[in-house]
Amino acid sequence: MLLAATIGLAATSLQADVIAPGDVVMTEYGEVTESLTGVPGDPARGQAIMVDRGQGNCLACHQVTALDHEPWHGEVGPSLDGVATRWDEAALRGLLVNADTVFPDSIMPAFYKVSGFVRPGDGFTTRPAPADLQPMLAAQDIEDVVAFLMTLTDY
Ligand code: HEC
């Protein structure tokens, strides 16, 4: 009983620190300066999310030399090599939350957005979105991907 109560409490306080998609504060330059979770990103996990075709699926559109061991790098978007020298952490977080602020009408998915879509779909599945729209990536996923992107300093 006591254990369950303690776990419940821990889960609640964890939840409280997560900024919901509707509450994200973005600067006029499309930067999100505050961490979405307060928990430092894990670059290894971020790399896994980026190459996962059902999660980030970043390689569908981007080439990344550091991920050369993965097949199929797309050329729809720019190569992400050296991306950490072009953008800082707040800018990268903002691009993932919603790239539209920096690149109007970008075809890059807004990974942390749940409203304002014309015809929302369910991630990359082509099915219509469920009534309660979930962001394409969870808050910690975004932090982890940002942490990996920050390692991409080489061209
Ligand atoms: C459907 C294609 C698509 C997907 C999927 C996609 N992007 Fe993009 N991304 C783009 C395009 C296109 C641009 C260039 C800006 C524009 O014209 O919209 C871009 C720009 C960027 C930039 C800025 C690059 C620069 O140097 O200017 C970053 C960083 C980025 N994407 C990261 C990601 C990450 C990380 C993922 C996966 C979580 C991802 N993108 C998924 C299409 C995509």
TrEMBL record:
Highest rank taxon of the organism: Bacteria
Gene3D superfamilies named in the record: Cytochrome c-like domain
Domain Cytochrome c: 41-153
Keywords for the protein's UniProt record, in alphabetical order: Heme, Iron, Metal-binding
Single annotated GO MF: heme binding
Keyword Lyase listed: no
Alphabetical list of Pfam families matching this protein: Cytochrom_C
Protein name (record): Sulfur oxidation c-type cytochrome SoxX
Lineage of the organism: Bacteria, Pseudomonadati, Pseudomonadota, Alphaproteobacteria, Rhodobacterales
